[in-house]
Automatic annotation (TrEMBL):
Name of the protein: Cytochrome b5
Keyword Iron: yes
Subcellular localization, as worded in the UniProt entry: Endoplasmic reticulum membrane; Microsome membrane
Similarity-based family: Belongs to the cytochrome b5 family.
């Protein structure tokens, strides 16, 4: 799972798999990854790159306080409901 979504050919070779594992790899092989810009050059288009790691200016981290708001509110609510029913009985 460490190599999920990426080309793991080098990692596969580094581990030193058996010949049976190499046969299974050929059976389950889906395809080969194109190199960056290779598809665009084949189609005669200009190579275009996009920035995937850009964060908006207002959001300095992926784990902003808004992502924690709902779990915190639910936790406080569950605690209050639990204490209410314990004191009621």
């Amino acid at each position: 799972m460490e190599q999920g979504g990426r080309d793991c050919t080098e990692a596969f070779e580094d581990i030193g798999h058996s010949s049976d594992a190499r046969k299974l790899m050929e059976i389950f092989k889906i395809g080969e990854l194109a190199k960056i810009g290779e598809l665009a050059k084949e189609e005669g288009e200009e190579e275009q790159m996009c920035e995937l790691n850009h964060l908006p200016d207002g959001d300095s981290s992926s784990g902003s306080w808004r992502s924690w708001l709902i779990p915190i509110v639910l936790g406080v609510l569950a605690t209050l409901v639990y204490r209410y029913f314990i004191k009621a009985h």
